[in-house]
Design brief:
With 416 residues, the chain is an all-alpha fold. The protein has a single domain, classed as Growth Hormone, Chain: A (Up-down Bundle). It is built from 17 helices and two strands. Strands 1-2 form a two-stranded antiparallel sheet. The termini are close together.
C-alpha cells in the first residue's frame, strides 16, 4: 500500500503513534537512573558524584554502535531493525536489575544504551519518512512530548517503586515493556523499504556525503554543544537537590510530575509556532530561559520551596529547545540518507552526553555527607554553551534554505 505524506492529521499515522509510545518507554527507562542515584548510593554504595559514569557509559556505547552501523541502517527494512534492537535493549535492562555492584550496573546499562542508539535512529528516520516538511514541527513536538509523559508518569512511578519496594524492579519493568514493544512493532509497524528501492549513489556512502556538507557539520556541532550543556547538569541534579539543597526524597516524584505536565502543555503551542515560521527565534528564547533557570538553581542557591517552579520551568524550556532543534535539522537529509543522518546525529548526541557525564564526574567532588562540590562552575560552563548553540545555528544554518517543495521530497512510499 502506498501512503503519501498528505494526511490532515499526521499524528494519526501508526508510525508516529508507535514512535511516541517507544519514546515514552525508552526515555522513562533512561531518565529514571538520575533521580534513582541517591537510592543506588544507599543500596550498592554508588558514589553520588559518579552517576555521570553510569549515564556516560550508556551514551558512549550508543554512540559507538550507532556510528558503526550508520552506513548500514538505510539498506534494510526499518521495521526489522527496530524490532531487533528494541528486543536486545529490553533484555539488557532486565539484566540490570540483577546487578549487585556499581561496576556491574554500569556495564549492563552501557549495553542497553548501545542498542538504544540504532533503534532511535531508525525510528526517527521512519517518522521523517512519513511526515511532510510543513507538518514536521507539529509532529516533532508530538514526539518530543514523550519526554513530558515519561516525566509525568514513568519517572514518578519509578521513584515510588524504588521508595516502597526496590530500585531493581524498575529495570525489570522497563525491560519487560521494551520486549512488549518489540512484539507490538513486529505485529503492526509497517514494513518500510521505499528508501532502499531507489538506485541512489548517495545511499552507498551516506555518511561521507552528509559530512561533506558544511551545514550538516555545523548542525552537528550545535547538537553536540547543546547536549553537552544539558547533560553536564542533568547527570547530577537529583543528588544535588537532595544532598545539597535538602530537597525531600519523597517529593522527587511530585517534582517530575509537575515538570512533565508543564512541558507537555507548552509543547503543544510551540509545535504550532514552529510550523508558522517561528523557528530560530523559538530556539534562542528557549535557550535563554534554560540559562536563566540554571543560574537560579545552581548559582543563586534557591529556597527549597521554589525548586518546584524552577525545575518545571527548566524541564519545559529544555524540552522545547530540543524539539525545535530536531525540527530545524530534520530538513537536511534526503530520504535515502535519513537513517544515516539520524545515526550520525545520535552518535554525536551520545558522545556529547557521555562526555558530559564523565566530565561532570571528573569536575565534581563529594563531602563525607554526600554533598556535591563544584556544581556552580559546571553550571557556568553549561550556561555559556546553552546560549552559544542557537546563535551558531541561526547564523550559519538558515532554515529557509533547507526547505524544499519538491514533490519527491514530500511523498514517500510505505509498504505494508
Amino acid at each position: 500500500m502506498t501512503t503519501e505524506n498528505t494526511a490532515v492529521n499526521p499524528t494519526s499515522n501508526w508510525v508516529v503513534r508507535l514512535a511516541f509510545l517507544i519514546n515514552i518507554i525508552s526515555l522513562g527507562g533512561f531518565m529514571m537512573v538520575v533521580p534513582l542515584g541517591p537510592d543506588l548510593v544507599e543500596s550498592i554504595d554508588f558514589n553520588p558524584a559518579h552517576i555521570g559514569y553510569l549515564i556516560g557509559g550508556a551514551m558512549f556505547g550508543s554512540a559507538l554502535l550507532t556510528w558503526l552501523l550508520a552506513d548500514q541502517l538505510d539498506k534494510y527494512d526499518r521495521k526489522s531493525i527496530l524490532v531487533l534492537f528494541l528486543l536486545l535493549r529490553g533484555l539488557c535492562l532486565i539484566a540490570c536489575g540483577f546487578a549487585s555492584s556499581p561496576l556491574a550496573l554500569i556495564i549492563l546499562f552501557t549495553l542497553s544504551g548501545s542498542f538504544t542508539g540504532p533503534a532511535s535512529s531508525v525510528l526517527m528516520a521512519a517518522v521523517i519518512d512519513v511526515t511532510p516538511p510543513p507538518n514536521r514541527g507539529r509532529v516533532m513536538a508530538f514526539i518530543g512530548s514523550a519526554f513530558s509523559i515519561a516525566a509525568i508518569l514513568m519517572v514518578p512511578l519509578s521513584l515510588l517503586v524504588s521508595l516502597y519496594f526496590s530500585w531493581q524492579i524498575n529495570f525489570w519493568i522497563f525491560g519487560g515493556l521494551g520486549i512488549v514493544l518489540a512484539v507490538l512493532c513486529a505485529l503492526i509497524f509497517p514494513s518500510m523499504t521505499a528508501h532502499i528501492q531507489s538506485e541512489n549513489v548517495a545511499k552507498q556512502k551516506a555518511v561521507s556525503l552528509l559530512l561533506s556538507q558544511s551545514k550538516v557539520k555545523i548542525a552537528l556541532f550545535v547538537i553536540a554543544i547543546q547536549i553537552l550543556a544539558h547533560f553536564l547538569i542533568i547527570s547530577n541534579f537529583s543528588a544535588y537537590f537532595q544532598f545539597n539543597l535538602g530537597f525531600p526524597r519523597e517529593d522527587m516524584s511530585t517534582l517530575y510530575f509537575g515538570g512533565g505536565i508543564a512541558s507537555f502543555i507548552i509543547l503543544q503551542f510551540t509545535g504550532k509556532l514552529f510550523d508558522k515560521g517561528v523557528r530560530h527565534q523559538l530556539h534562542l528564547v528557549s535557550a535563554l530561559m534554560v540559562a536563566l533557570t540554571l543560574y537560579l538553581i545552581f548559582i543563586a542557591t534557591p529556597q527549597v520551596n521554589t525548586l518546584f517552579i524552577l525545575f518545571a520551568l527548566m524541564m519545559t524550556v529544555s524540552t522545547v529547545r530540543m524539539s525545535v532543534t530536531t525540527s530545524i535539522i530534520s530538513h537536511l537529509p534526503a530520504p535515502p540518507q535519513r537513517a544515516a543522518f539520524m545515526s550520525i546525529n545520535n552518535s554525536v548526541s551520545n558522545v556529547a552526553s557521555g562526555a558530559a557525564g564523565f566530565l561532570s564526574a571528573a569536575l565534581l567532588t563529594t563531602t563525607v555527607d554526600n554533598k556535591i562540590i563544584g556544581m556552580d562552575w559546571v553550571a557556568v560552563i553549561s550556561i555559556v554553551l546553552t546560549i552559544a548553540a542557537p546563535i551558531i545555528l541561526w547564523r550559519w544554518v538558515n532554515h529557509e534554505s533547507l526547505v524544499t517543495n519538491s514533490p519527491n521530497q514530500s511523498a514517500n512510499t510505505v509498504k505494508n
